[in-house]
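Hey team,

Sharing the Universal stress protein run so nobody has to redo it. Sequence (343 residues) first:
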Amino acid sequence: MPPLRAGHTVETGSHRRRHGAVPRRPRRSWRGGTARAPDRTRGQPVLPVPARPRRRETLLHSVVAGVDGSPQSLTAADWAAREAVLRGRPLRIVCAREALPSDAEKALGPQNGYGWAEERLEQLERRLRERHPDLPVEILREPGPPVQSILGQDAELLVLGSRGLTGVAGHLMGSVSLAVVGRSERPVVLVRTGYDPGAPEHGAVAVGFDFHHEADEPVAFAFEAAAARGAAIKAVHVWDAQRAYGWATIPQDMEVLDEYEGPARRYLADAVAPWRERYPAVGITEEVVRGSAGPGLITAGAGTDLLVVGHRVRGKGRASPLGHVTHAVLHHAPCPVAVVPHG
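Structure output:
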């Protein structure tokens, strides 16, 4: 056999390679050897890969109401049903069930402990279907803590009662509502017990404007809510003389103080102007209130169908503490309150 030179081709059986070339590394088989894994699909028909099933439409665009059987939560469900009709969205009622405390389980039994809540839930379902026969209503019973159950819903809007009891466990619904508001990445509406689903609406949605914390998300939510119900917008800006100028520079003469209010009115007019162009069919009234933000917004919310405030979130999945203004509004506003998160 003649001597091999670099680049010379060597034939061995059915394999050919060039002398001096680096041989290819053998492919490892699925069993760890050097042989190839057997092809069990050869000769068989190729089946199409099944398409990934789409999630139900109701899961993507529902209005979700958290219900625990308390009067406050049932009232919130009534408001949520009316809002779902206005938005053209289905309604989902979520009832979270935590494990009973040992004392309650011994006294009531695991079935009787939740019997009263189940009975109210069935009554609520019948009432909603009778009142809104064309509204798709889904009842979902979720085991586990209510905060996680509610936040786990993929919905357009979350609705809760502003105060109540989370079942026989005895926790205040207020704590659940505040926890949901602080963690939610979607708007949350809190409804008080005094809401009457059969009463006519006032035809107004109030929203606050603050040049210290400007955000489009709460304003856009307010205008969409007003457009859906054919209501007007009450644009509110609370002007605090002490915060703006300090006590040392505040004049005592009220006529002079009214002149100091001019910049606040000009700010509100400029802030509302783009929204007038975007929603020409929605009427807008501007209201400048002198005083602290919390009491001013609470007063402005009287006689409205909804009061909208913003909530700055820290990041996805992180709890963000509520500001003192939002706290005051949630506890004392006479109307339903929408808390809209923003960055």
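Residues 4 and 19 are 7 Å apart (CA to CA).

Ping me if you want the raw files.
A.
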